[in-house]
Amino acid sequence: MSVQLAQDVTNDLGIYLPLVVMFALAAAFAVFSALLGPLVGPSRYNRAKFEAYECGIEPSPQPIIGGGRVPVAYYLTAMLFILFDIEMVFLYPFAVSADVLGLFGLVEIFLFIATVGFAYAYVWRRGGLDWN
């Protein structure tokens, strides 16, 4: 009885082998890339490499210890991008299975889009999309 149980467990775990191999290859690639980058890449000192890069911000003439401050607008823009980009992640599964979900799925997706639309209108009215 216990031999049969051990074989069943081994057979059931065998279906996860491709997933384990994929994670092992991903981890090996990550470690390989992290270790190989500094060895292969250029290592010459350049003052510009150590300066903070902010798109659209003029660098100050005198160096700022700690890299300086980043305007909050950059973080707000990034968070809004993530918020509205995640909407697409939720819409893809609906697009794939729209025929299976039928009218219920259509109503649910319209409610979801309406909720995100209200959030978009709120952010717009509050001035979150102003680039000034």
Automatic annotation (TrEMBL):
<dbReference type="GO" id="GO:0048038">
    <property type="term" value="F:quinone binding"/>
</dbReference>
<comment type="similarity">
    <text>Belongs to the complex I subunit 3 family.</text>
</comment>
<feature type="transmembrane region" description="Helical">
    <location>
        <begin position="15"/>
        <end position="40"/>
    </location>
</feature>
<dbReference type="GO" id="GO:0005886">
    <property type="term" value="C:plasma membrane"/>
</dbReference>
<comment type="subunit">
    <text>NDH-1 is composed of 14 different subunits. Subunits NuoA, H, J, K, L, M, N constitute the membrane sector of the complex.</text>
</comment>
<keyword id="KW-0874">Quinone</keyword>
<keyword id="KW-0520">NAD</keyword>
<feature type="transmembrane region" description="Helical">
    <location>
        <begin position="101"/>
        <end position="123"/>
    </location>
</feature>
<dbReference type="GO" id="GO:0008137">
    <property type="term" value="F:NADH dehydrogenase (ubiquinone) activity"/>
</dbReference>
<dbReference type="InterPro" id="IPR000440">
    <property type="entry name" value="NADH_UbQ/plastoQ_OxRdtase_su3"/>
</dbReference>
<keyword id="KW-0472">Membrane</keyword>
<comment type="function">
    <text>NDH-1 shuttles electrons from NADH, via FMN and iron-sulfur (Fe-S) centers, to quinones in the respiratory chain. The immediate electron acceptor for the enzyme in this species is believed to be a menaquinone. Couples the redox reaction to proton translocation (for every two electrons transferred, four hydrogen ions are translocated across the cytoplasmic membrane), and thus conserves the redox energy in a proton gradient.</text>
</comment>
<protein>
    <recommendedName>
        <fullName>NADH-quinone oxidoreductase subunit A</fullName>
        <ecNumber>7.1.1.-</ecNumber>
    </recommendedName>
</protein>
<keyword id="KW-0812">Transmembrane</keyword>
<keyword id="KW-1003">Cell membrane</keyword>
<keyword id="KW-1133">Transmembrane helix</keyword>
<feature type="transmembrane region" description="Helical">
    <location>
        <begin position="72"/>
        <end position="95"/>
    </location>
</feature>
<dbReference type="GO" id="GO:0030964">
    <property type="term" value="C:NADH dehydrogenase complex"/>
</dbReference>
<dbReference type="Pfam" id="PF00507">
    <property type="entry name" value="Oxidored_q4"/>
</dbReference>
<dbReference type="GO" id="GO:0050136">
    <property type="term" value="F:NADH dehydrogenase (quinone) (non-electrogenic) activity"/>
</dbReference>
<dbReference type="InterPro" id="IPR038430">
    <property type="entry name" value="NDAH_ubi_oxred_su3_sf"/>
</dbReference>
<dbReference type="InterPro" id="IPR023043">
    <property type="entry name" value="NAD(P)H_OxRDtase_bac/plastid"/>
</dbReference>
<keyword id="KW-1278">Translocase</keyword>
<keyword id="KW-0813">Transport</keyword>
